[in-house]
Amino acid sequence: MQDRRGDEGDEQHPRCGPCTRLNRECDWDHRWNFNDATTTTQGKYSNISTAGNAVWDPTVRQGHGSGSLPGELDALPEFATLTNDEDRETKARTSRPGTYGVVVTPESFYDLPEYAAHSPQESRRMSGASSSSARGARGSGRPGLGRSNTASDPTVVVLDKFEDASPVSTGPLSAATESRRSSFPEALGQLSITTPPYNASISTGPHTPQVRSDDHLIAHFRRYIVPRLAQPQQESIPGFPSQGSTRDVLEFEATRFPPLHHAMCAISALNLSHNGQSSLEEALQHYHQALAASATPRSSPPDLFSDGSFLRHFLLLVYDICIPMQSDDGGTALWAVHLNQLTRIAIERRDSPGNERYAYTLWSICELDVYACLLGSGNCDFLRTMMSHNMIPPFEKTIPGLSTTQTPNASAFLPSEANIFPSILHLSQGILLRTAKLAQTAQTFRHEHTSSKGSIAPATWARWQSTAAQLQSELHTFWQQSYPSHILGPVTTEPNTSLLPERVASVFTTTTLLYHAAILYARTSLFPTQRTLPSYAQNSLSTDSEARVRSILALTATQPPSNRKSVFPLFIAGVVSLEPESKRRALELVRGFEGSGIGQNTYRTGRLLEAEARGEG
């Protein structure tokens, strides 16, 4: 006969493992222990600072007293009964920092998609059941949906379910998000490219300088990043600030639009991470803050297309170009999503009063769009949209302004530039637009080749070759007609750029490099096997191509390492040339540009060129 006395009426609870091991009574409740790890963390990471922080700086905590803001009363119920973060934040502002706490546990995240995809369903079920059982056993009620508090401390709330408060994305972001998830930590999968509403009126007052822990990032951005974003650089002349226009504009807008500040810090931290002066985690943190910045529903739609928002997306575009992400089949690279957002912003700003203040930034985006298409990673949609809406900036607007306070009728040129710069800019704009047509044609031909599955009709080959010859002719004709021979001399001679003002010489050299590279590209890279097809003037074309290769090598040898536009012509020259010495020199010059950009794309270009030289490309 079984003894059932232990099953009935003794009202004894089992003890958990730790209490059994320590021979202690189990009180069926959580005991949270909050330790200040500030000292340990600062010992491990030299860039961590608590100065001025209301929670972690003891001197600030003493100055805050009770922590209540002047005139602010606590009219809310007990902390444990509040059901949303907004109410908890409001109540916390009326008390000393550290009074209340919100705790998340591993179970809090189980329902998030990025965790659900990697958590075994059975273990999630068992853990959830175990957690619910324990909470039910200790008898603590649930004051709000998905939340619980400890009976021993009503100032601490434990979240049963973490609710993501980041903005909801729409449009092509979902594909880009999945793409990034596949090649980066899952936490980045929740980033949103959608511009959050922002109330500009909050920051319209005088700016009060603050000591920030990321001042070193802004200093690096000012000194190193800006000269690589705004080209050509302005020569130093008394009365004209050198590099000041773009730098001052960005820093001024960042004081009014905090997400732009985070974008500046993100791209600066990314660059510093390459030499160990920062970390990729710091760059990603600022990147996330630039996208999911705090917002207010009182914002008006024009805030979405403000100067700060426009410049923020431009910097994030450059950031994602510097960290190329592999996209799944049918997916969208994240930099392309930024480009789509910039297209939308540019169109909306077109209808705003006055001219586009940052037309040179629009032109920089057009250049990036063209280079991406040449390399098979884009389709020139941004430039195509600018042209279809008649938004191509006038050529004098495609360079950074002389100052931040230019009047509408002020000259865009220095006195020494006025006679030559307009002609050079006209030449530069025309060559880029014709190169864009070349890139779009190459994309069309590649698509036709893929669709044909290798079965190309003779008529198609003939059409492709005829189109390639026509595009070369258009480039050559425009160059001959627009070349400023009245200043530079006959087009057949090598111009003496040393006689040109600094900015003019920079633009002319870049334009010449792109012209030679575009001709070589049209001869060799418009469609597969183009280089192997015989031509009626094969010998003369080969001689001319090698001459253009030598011109590219000679011109890039004179360029400063910060001129990122020299790398693509060098790459084309190294691929096209049949002379081993020219290939070697092209690779040597590409290596000379490594380490002087924002990201590491030049390094990747050098590795591609090495592979091509070994016959692996």
UniProtKB/TrEMBL annotation:
Presence of the UniProt keyword Cell membrane in the record: no
Compositionally biased tracts (Low complexity): 126-137
Locations listed in the record: Nucleus
Keywords carried by this UniProt record: Nucleus
Region (Disordered): 117-152, 162-181
Alphabetized CDD domains for the sequence: fungal_TF_MHR (cd12148)
Keyword rRNA processing tagged: no
The protein's name: Zn(2)-C6 fungal-type domain-containing protein
Lineage, opening ranks: Eukaryota, Fungi, Dikarya, Ascomycota, Pezizomycotina
